[in-house]
Amino acid sequence: MKLIVGLGNIGKEYENTRHNIGFMVVDELAKRWGVSFNRTDKNAMFAEHRAPEKIMLIKPTTYMNLSGIAVGAYANYYNLGNEEIAVIQDDLDLPVGQLRIRKKGSAGGHNGIKSIQEHLGTDEFPRFKIGISHPGRNGKAVVSHVLKAFAGEEKAAIEEAVKKMADALERWIKEDIDAVMNEYNKKPAKPKKEKAPKAEEGAEVKAEAKVEEKEA
Q1: Can you give the pTM of this predicted structure?
Q2: So where are the chain's domains?
Q3: CA–CA distance, 148 with 92 (Å, rounded to integer)
């Protein structure tokens, strides 16, 4: 069995905000698999799928900072190993829409991850991160930023990133996480700068000739 945790905050006012990236990804998976979050247990909304092993999708209902209560409860009830738990989170330190997958790591200031580490007693569980960019080092600006909805080009980038992350998780269910990391941790290619067109040889010769005439 595998547990896929989407981090976010419940409530209409938080839908489609940066901090709700995890909810967006598990919603995409539920849509693909034809399942729905119509049940609640152990402080989380959940949906079940078989592929063929049992896959549990959950959205903690405790709000972000206490997400570990739900994750710990599911991990204990189903006797899951840490490697069987995937946590989807937003990441301030990545550009909008960039994916990064890790086997383990620090919370990096993410309160939802801190809570999960406390309840699991370890930082060794897979993280599936999507970048939301950083507004600056001001604490109040960060709070406002993570609760802000995406718009314009950012919205399009996030929609694509959510689908790619859902692809990555479907691979993680069946394959080794190293293979998934190799495939999805690639940085997006930077657009190539167009070089200025070179002047034709004939034009250069004519220009030089005109300069010589003036000098004469």
Answers
A1: 0.83
A2: 2-189
A3: 13
* Nearest Cα to Cα of residue 130 among 163, 91, 156, 104: 91
Cα 144 to the chain's mean position, in Å? 19
**Highest CATH level, class, for 2-189:** alpha beta
Q: Is 33 left (phi over 0), alpha (psi -120 to 50) or beta?
A: alpha
For CA atoms 129, 88, 147, 139, give the dihedral sign: negative
Percentage helix, strand, coil, to 5, in the chain? 45, 20, 35
Distance of CA 189 to CAs 72, 98, 186, Å? 38, 11, 9
- Please, what are the averages of pLDDT over each run of 10 residues along the chain (216 residues)? 97 91 97 97 97 95 96 98 96 94 91 96 96 76 78 92 98 95 81 51 52 50
List alpha helices for the chain, DSSP H.
Answer: 21-33, 67-77, 111-120, 139-146, 152-174, 177-184, 201-215
Q: How many CB atoms lie within 10 A of CB 46?
A: 20
Which DSSP symbol is given to 189?
P
Burial of 127 (0-12, 13-18, 19+ CB in 10 A): buried
Residues classed as catalytic? 19
Strand partners, 90: 130
